[in-house]
Amino acid sequence: MVIIRFLIAAICRKACCLSVTFRLSAVAIFWLVSSAGFAGGGHEVRRVDIVVYGGTPAGIAAAVTAGREGKSVLLVEPYSFVGGMMTNGLSHTDFRTFESITGFYLEVTQLAVRFYESTYGADSSQVRDCWSGTQVEPSVLQPIFQQMLKESASVSVVLKHQLKAVAVVECCSDGTRHMNSATFVSDEGVDFQVDAKVFIDASYEGDLMAMAKIPYEVGREAGSRFGESLAPVVADSEVQGYNFRLIVTDRETNRVMPSEPTEYDRADYLDVLPLFRRSELSAVWCASHGGVLKNHRPALPNEKYDVNDVSRGLVRLSLPNDSNGWPDGSSIERQSIFQKHVRHNMGLLYFLQNDPDVPAVIQKDARRFGWAKDEFQGHDHMPEQLYVREARRMQGVHIYKQHDTAASLNEVRSVFHSDSIAVGDYGHNCHGTAHEGRLFGGKHSGEFYAKTAPYQIPYGVLLPKKVDNILVPVACSSSHVGFCALRLESIWMSLGQASGLAAAMAIDDLVPVQYVEIEALQGRLHQMGSATIYVGDVPPSHGDFRAVQWWGQRGGWHGQQFRGREYGDRGKHLVSQYFSRFPGHDAELGLRLTDQLQADWLKIAGQQNIRLGDLTNAESRIEFVRAAWGALTK
What we know:
Layout: H1 2-15, H2 20-34, E1 44-53, H3 57-68, E2 73-77, H4 103-120, H5 125-129, H6 138-151, E3 155-159, E4 161-170, E5 177-186, E6 191-201, H7 207-211, E7 216-217, H8 223-226, E8 246-249, E9 255-256, H9 273-277, E10 285-286, E11 293-295, E12 304-308, H10 331-354, H11 360-366, E13 370-372, E14 393-394, E15 420-424, E16 429-436, E17 443-449, E18 455-458, E19 470-471, H12 480-486, H13 489-509, H14 518-527, H15 545-552, E20 573-575, E21 578-579, H16 595-607, H17 621-633
Parallel strand pairs: 1-2, 1-6, 2-3, 6-19, 10-11
Antiparallel strand pairs: 4-5, 5-6, 7-14, 8-12, 8-13, 9-13, 11-12, 15-18, 16-17, 20-21
Helix pairs in contact: 1-2, 3-13, 4-6, 10-11, 14-15, 15-17
């Protein structure tokens, strides 16, 4: 088998010197031979179309999407259950407006609403509190994800297996490489090999990408490298601080009080008390600031809360100085970092609830909440995963930067990406990359929270430059600042969905993932109800969604609304971080065409080689868009 692959690789290298057609044909031959049934190495060998490493929400989206396209998929998850952080405490999902929720994530939210309606009734408090399926208990999301995977008959799931090795060969004289297989090992030391046509690295750390020797960065670039105002002056190796996302409740019948963590030392937490005495802290639990632990609002169903780090607080759950070793760390090193966070996060709450030196009024406040008894039942009611906000970042075809979310000229919209495959609306968000001063009472540095308008995400963030059959939706190609806009589960699910679809299309068309036809990919995503540009008043359920998205990818919605206020201004505030839709981002399909807009749109149509006949008679925006879309689809 080694000899055969060597010969095929030689053919591919020769093909690189020829035309693109010959090159793609050589890659197709390589795929066919690589999966033709040659085994070796003395261990089990499986063969599938696509391997997805990481049962994160992005990984699930990729696997389910590819499975629905008829591809055989193996999803390999290192932990004991799928769902990543969304089933490990991150239940307060990050987005700004409901209008940004489309595609796979929208489907998940709808399934969550259905669950609460069927379980508790359509008029129940649980349905109200799930907030259209965006605020969902981990114990509810886990079976939803499992069912979605189960319903995709061609998708298989393997739990509790770590990546052990990959086989990547050079297939072209320009250095292009091709991944043949990955080997995974169980907790008991039993391994197996999987040969596949396409691989998707959906892990938070980018472990498969790194093992395939795809270039990546860890840490922050200097501001001068990409011209980013949010970046530091000097580059460093700092990543965002990690912490646990905890699920607590004050419902006595479902509350379990935390027990003393291993290696607990009360001396580690005594410096918290002077902050209360000086009234620098006013409570243990808070909605946004002034406390030790942040109970996100709105609350989850069944009187539960997702607990997080207090941004810019005097006491932090996140430990940025101790997170830097995680991305490139071994399993042993990561376990050590994990345990340090266990001691810090759990020990802090245990101290406040139980230590005799804690004032009675503070201790009473601390003891209002405990772990939810019905969450993480196999793990002492604690999440199995640490919240890895940032690890490795691929340096691929398109490096997503601060500029990618900047304003387009003087418009309300952000810069235009014709090759967009997803949208986001949250903005750049970094909880800090280092800590200065005392652990309690000091401050995080490298912290920022920046406004943006909704932004597009180009296909190139998924693509390595030199490996032709790997896609990376989570540890995607970006700068540190750019990653701080992409690092959200709602966005990662969109990138995962695009990855799964692109992988299937690459297999069908016998092309490298870099050669997937972008307009066809976008069209299929639109068909699936996944947006590639933010249009506030035309949701996926709208009959003209596909046409409006298609026209947006031609540039039709740029240049229509100009700023009268600060860039990134939001609509009416709803609650917490959530707002009504962004002003100036509606299609307003019922409006009549102005002469200037008609001239602009006719110019775009001409550039797209669309016959202008019916378009010149359009009197409203919707008539024009429908006519253009109809001319395309005839």
